[in-house]
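=== RUN LOG ===
request id: a7f3
mode: sequence -> structure
chains: 1
length: 201
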Amino acid sequence: MFKEIKESFSSAVVREVRSHIKTSLCIVRHRTHLHFNHACLKHQVLPKSLCSKPLINSAEGRKLTRKYAFQNLRLRIRSSHCRIKFCKSKLEELCSLSKNLPVNVFEKIEKHLQERQDRLFKKLNAAHWNLLNKMLHGKSRENSLPSSIEKCVINVSKTTLTESQEKVLRLGLNFAIAPRKIPVPQILASVENSLWQVPQS
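=== RESULT ===
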C-alpha cells in the first residue's frame, strides 16, 4: 500500500499518511491502558509496576505505601486522558489527508488502519484482562508449572511411577527423611571425636 502511495504522491503526503496511522494506533493503545487502569482502581488492585516496598515495615508504613501507589494509579489515568486528547488534536491537524488523496486510496488507508487497530486492541485487551484476572485471583498459570528443571521428574525407565514416588523424586537429590528421634549420643560422640583432633594452644 505504501509503495503505491510513494509512487503516486509526494513524500510529504506519505509522511502525513504514516503520521495519521501512528497517531490513530496511539489512541487505541492509550484507551486500552486507560480501561485497564480504571478496572484496577475499581477492583482496588495494583499493577506490579506500581507496587513497592514500604520504607518503614509497619502497618502504618504499608498503608501509606499503598495509598501512594493508588495516587500514582489515578495519575496514570489522568495522563492517559491527556495523551488521548493530544492525539485527537493531532489527528484534527491531519484532516487535510482526505482532501489530498483520491477517495479509493483514502478508503484503502482507512481499511488498513481499521485492521491494525482491531489487531492491536485484541492483543492489548487480552493481555490486560489476563493480568487483571491474575491480580484478582492471585493465581497464574506459571505457578502450576515447575519453577526449575530440578523439580521436573523425567522417567527414562520402563517402570511406571506412582504419584507419591514422583512427589518424593521432585524434592531433589538433597532431600533426606528426618529421623523420628534425634540421635543425641551419636552427635555428641562425633563432636567430641572432632574436638580431640583440634590442636591445643
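=== NOTES ===
The chain has seven helices and no strands.
Residues 139-150 have pLDDT under 50 and may be disordered.
=== END ===
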